[in-house]
Amino acid sequence: MSFAEENYLKVLYQLSYERVDRKDAGTSELALILKVKPASVNDMLKKLKEKKYVDNKKYGKISLTKKGKEVAINVLRKHRLWETFLYEKLDFNWAEVHDVAEQLEHIQSKKLVKKLDKFLSFPRFDPHGDPIPNEKGEIVKTNRVLLSSIKKGDFFRVVGVKDLSSDFLQYIDDLKIRINSEIILEDIQEFDKTRLLYFNENKVRISKEVSDCIFVLPL
Amino acid sequence: MSFAEENYLKVLYQLSYERVDRKDAGTSELALILKVKPASVNDMLKKLKEKKYVDNKKYGKISLTKKGKEVAINVLRKHRLWETFLYEKLDFNWAEVHDVAEQLEHIQSKKLVKKLDKFLSFPRFDPHGDPIPNEKGEIVKTNRVLLSSIKKGDFFRVVGVKDLSSDFLQYIDDLKIRINSEIILEDIQEFDKTRLLYFNENKVRISKEVSDCIFVLPL
DNA sequence: TAATAAAGTTAGGCTTACCTAAAACATAAA
DNA sequence: TTTATGTTTTAGGTAAGCCTAACTTTATTA
Ligand SMILES: [Mn+2]
Ligand SMILES: [Mn+2]
Ligand SMILES: [Mn+2]
Ligand SMILES: [Mn+2]
Fold first, then answer.
1. What was the pLDDT predicted at A80?
2. Does nucleic acid strand C have an atom less than 7 angstroms from the CB of B43?
3. Can you give the pLDDT at residue A56?
4. Phi and psi for A36 in degrees, rounded to 5?
5. How high is the pLDDT of residue B68?
6. Which positions of strand C lie within 7 Å of protein CB atoms?
């Protein structure tokens, strides 16, 4: 299993199973995320199909086979364990861990993953609030929702982020919005849909766009 | 800098500067170690030469430029830091760490190396007794010698191994020969050059071959 | 329904890092 | 000094993973 193959399977899994509006991806969506051209995606899909990792008909959407899903979940498990390691043990901040984990997720060693998991005390969520699949590939399900769906006056806890870009993470970190922050939605401006948040004795106004990238758990 | 390029430079460095009988390598020696064919080595050398990492004339031995040496030392630093991490923090044994470190050594992140170094409290030797270059690329020099050069009756401490194969390491580990073991060379058999070692209230006989793969410091 | 736009596919090419087979060169032995 | 042996280089070729350009199919809109 090459780095490239692992990346394709991982992204396919995330698109099919982890985004808010779950749906199978097509060639060009995949190309966009992997920063390659649709023609390249097509080449790779041909190979993944032959190897029985994906299963799609011509001109149809791409779906993972059981085998492909297993590989994808394992890569995701490694990615998120490494992020947790970098964050918890090496004192990286949550905006820095993703890029390095993109490399570390491809290290092949079952023993390493097992030992790392133990070293980190079997974490269930990564620094961005995403669930870490366990050794069997099982993933905890939460009923998190987007901050943008919260009603005025409601109380909630931040449990994750949808956008993992360094820019976004640094931005909301500067606003002191963190995993486990407990917040009251004081007001929603009708004009521009900005939200006024109240937490830690402070008021912070965030845009609609930001509220669409933060997962919360109503309390 | 690709994985392959890094591996070539690392091995070149080890051959030119770290083996007991220091000398620059040739095409086929490099091929043997990298498990590729001499023709492939030639292809790569052509590229490394163009990029000014190595410097050799046609049909001559291969030597690293300053630039090539720097890259090699950095890869070696990462390799040995990761081995130390696996050994000290993840409870791998010394026969297991090398293969995983072969992968980890290629992770590109200056911050990661820096943080890892700190996390490990700036180790100066890896689990096999090899020196870890510091951030500036400086390497501590020791006056270690091979166990095979020790005279009968002498007292010494084990400080390293020449062979990093899992088989060899597991073998001497079973004999309870470890880094920092303090040993007296009780006898050398004239017939087959085997050595009788005395340490920890025990006597162990080792072959000439084994004595040629263990670095020691006379006490 | 027909025209247009978007998405997916195919053909042909490129680079990296390998390979085999054969030729050129260097070194050691006869 | 000639011959044999081993080493290095060259020539030509492959597979992976990407590319552009052209073409086909599907989806959207007039
Ligand atoms: Mn990530
Ligand atoms: Mn990746
Ligand atoms: Mn090693
Ligand atoms: Mn390597």
1. 98
2. yes
3. 87
4. -130, 180
5. 97
6. 7-12, 16-22, 25-26
pLDDT score of A53:
98
* Nearest chain B CA: its distance from A116 CA (Å): 7
* Phi then psi dihedrals of residue B147, to 5 deg: -55, -30
> Is the same domain home to A88 and A7?
yes
- Taking an 8 Å cut-off on Cβ atoms, the answer to whether A107 and B100 are in contact is yes
What CATH number has the domain bearing residue A74? 1.10.10.10
Q: Which helix (H) or strand (E) is A85 found in, with range?
A: helix A66-88
pLDDT in tens, A54-69: 998 999 999 999 999 9
Q: Which nucleotide does the CA of A57 lie closest to, via C1'?
A: C8
Q: Are residues B27 and B129 in the same domain?
A: yes
Among candidate residues A136, A155, A170, the one where a domain is terminated: A136
As given in the structure block, the two tokens for residue A128 are: 């961005």
State if pTM tops 0.85.
yes
Q: Which residues of B touch A (CB under 8 A)?
A: 86, 89-92, 96, 99-100, 103-104, 107-109, 111-112, 115-116, 119
Of the residues B136, B162, B190, the one at which a domain ends: B136
CATH number at residue A193: 2.30.30.90
- The residue segments making up the domain with residue A164 are 145-218
pLDDT value for A2: 97
Query: What's the average model confidence in pLDDT over A36-44?
Result: 98
Contact residues for B196 (Cβ-Cβ < 8 A; gap 6+): B185, B186, B187, B188, B189, B203, B204, B205
